[in-house]
Amino acid sequence: MTATTTHHRICPLCEACCGLEIKVQAGKVISIRGHDADVFSAGYICPKGVALKDLHEDPDRLRTPLIKRNGVFEEASWDEAYAEIAHRLPPLMAQHGRNATAVVVGNPSAHKIGLLTYFGKLARALGTKNVFSASTLDQMPKQLASGLMFGHWLSVALPDITRTDYLLVLGANPLVSNGSMWTVPDFKGKAKALQARGGKLVVIDPRRTETAAVADAHHFIRPNADVFLLAAMVNTLFAEGLVTLGTVADWVNGDAEVQLAVTPFTPEAVASRCGISADTIRALTRDLAGAPRAAVYARIGTCTQEYGTLASWLVDVLNTLTGNLDREGGVLFAKSAAFASNTAGKPGVGKGVTTGRHQARVSGAPEVYGELPITCIAEEIETPGEGQIRALFTVATNPVLSSPNGPRLAEALDTLDFMVSMDIYLNETTRHADVILPGVSPLEDFHYDVAFPQLSWRNHARYSPPVLPAAPGQPEEWQTLLTLAAIVQGKGAHIDANTLDDAQFAEDAQRLFGAHADAVMRATQGLRGPQRSLEVALRTGPYGDGFGTQPDGLTLAKVMASNATGGIDLGELQPRIPEMLRTPSGKVELAPPSLLQDLQRAAHDLRGLAPDLVIIGRRDVRTNNSWMHNLPVLAKGPFRCTALVHPVDATRLQLQDGALAEICNGPRSVQAQVHISDEMMPGVVSLPHGWGHNLPGAKLHLAAERPGTNLNALLDDQLRDPLSGNAVLGGVAITMRAATAPAPAQTDS
């Protein structure tokens, strides 16, 4: 009998980053369970972790490059695929310039160190300002607000859930997501522990979510009204003398400016727009201020709206003014073992963040964090003139489904002169490509999280080696990115990626370490690609060995050796202000001028009327990304792409449970199956995102059996948060009526 081997792996399928125990026999995965010894997740696992087996074995997963010839995809060798790109792309760039190219990167890259650390090399080689990512679909408001306040895009204040007494959650569903911009596996268990020690969990959301269902209290709120509620709570703190800055009092600028700015937002003034009474707003504020230790957390629902940056900012204004910023049991900042900018350089001061270094050619939308809003892609392809996008790279992304007005984007993609996709699927976006380059299965790649330890509930360092070998001839993803960079630089398709990586690392070592560069080169000899950069990041990080100067410190070898025992626990989050600040002033900037100015827009809007009926998205633990609909273990069970409608609205609109309804937003319309539910706030409809697997040319066979409805096809790609460029995906006004066509069969499977 073939021996069974046991492997320990970090799950790459969502932000929870749970530790897995995977058993393999004869090259096949035979079981996946939570790793009980994991120092971060302690054995917790959700259904997505088990689905890694389905993903690896999915017959639809691409395993060889594809080249489109005469409108039909044909399998090709890697040499043929690179040659096709080298033949077609450089002449196009020579004729039309570098800004005729664009690159867009998606969510899975955040979970793959090779993609995350080497994507920038391709973008820099292209030399284009047209860089887009999924960040402007869900998280850029939080990153911008954090950057303006604390000095870096990933300096995000995180709830200290294991020590807090009061957790206020807005527009987030961490029981399903296990955190978002907050990596917290087994949120449910931690919330129950909070309640067991006498603490309180309060949720504010237009839907009674899974998190709200286990909370001590839940309050409905009208979508897009979070800014009004939060500003009114800040107003109440000042009006009732409840403001205290606590331990960060010497490190805060701007509290007086904030007090003046929120003057219009009294509880009475905002109550009707929020759908929350003035008395309730005051009670929430008093409970927050009166709790011994408290934290406010908000996420997707507050980011994907017209006032996303303002809402994200006001969350941390509340945390600061109640004395809970940088406080145990309040909100704290992680201290990542590697790659964190707020642990590098001179502590307590920095350059801060800058936006608007360039603008989108058509809309004029400002650059934020080096990228433009993803909703600008279609117009940048369609609009003639210098800088018109003619060639596009997509990396692990499916914006035809995941971004607003996908039909417009799909039409635009068909007009490109050339398109290259790095992806494991022939999906609704990559079907438009001329060349598709498949990535490796997550089980064939080593894993170290770059971003998520900077957002984690507890400090840690964990490494996963590959579980299974990659197919012969399959390049690593960082090697593919380097090869593409070499092609666009005119170096040809046959350059050796390892040689190029060695040369680039030598240049970086000289720039970063000067006279010590040769010693660093010797110390990292035998390593390449992201492993080598990880070794340097760990050894020069806050827990590192400093290349021998701190013998007990971390090295890559030590972290790798800890894999079987669940990684290295680096302890609970601790207060870090002022050393983690990277603002030019060395202070927490509570009143960034751009945010105070935009708050005036909200004050003007406060006088308007809320729409009668609006739509929001939602998340399911099994389907937080579109490609998860193609995995049997996640796709089975009840049909999830339904429009949740409150009974009062269903009666008013003459909608029947299980029947089809037409949902309209101006000229755009979709049809969806109705599910009548009192978990919705009256006047609010919920439809999950990421569905719509019925487009010709995509090869997601299981997903196509129950394609669902694409919420984003209903949304306006011109509607954005003006500060961050984030798409507005929720709180959009709609009309709704019963459809005349019969509902399609959506049986359980």
Describe the overall structure.
This protein has 749 residues and is an alpha/beta fold. Among the domains are: 144-333 and 339-345 and 577-604, 3-Layer(aba) Sandwich (Dimethylsulfoxide Reductase, domain 2); 611-738, Barwin-like endoglucanases (Beta Barrel), CATH 2.40.40. The protein has 27 helices and 29 strands. It has a 7-stranded mixed sheet with strand order 5-4-19-18-17-6-7. A 4-stranded parallel sheet has the order 11-10-9-13, with helices on both faces. Strands 24-26-25-29 form a 4-stranded mixed sheet. Strand 10 (200-204), helix 9 (210-214) and strand 11 (217-219) form a beta-alpha-beta unit. Helix 4 (113-126) packs parallel to helix 19 (477-488) and helix 10 (226-239) runs antiparallel to helix 12. The radius of gyration is 25 Å and the shape is globular.
Short description:
With 749 residues, the chain is α/β, with parallel strands linked by helices. The protein is 32% helix and 17% strand.
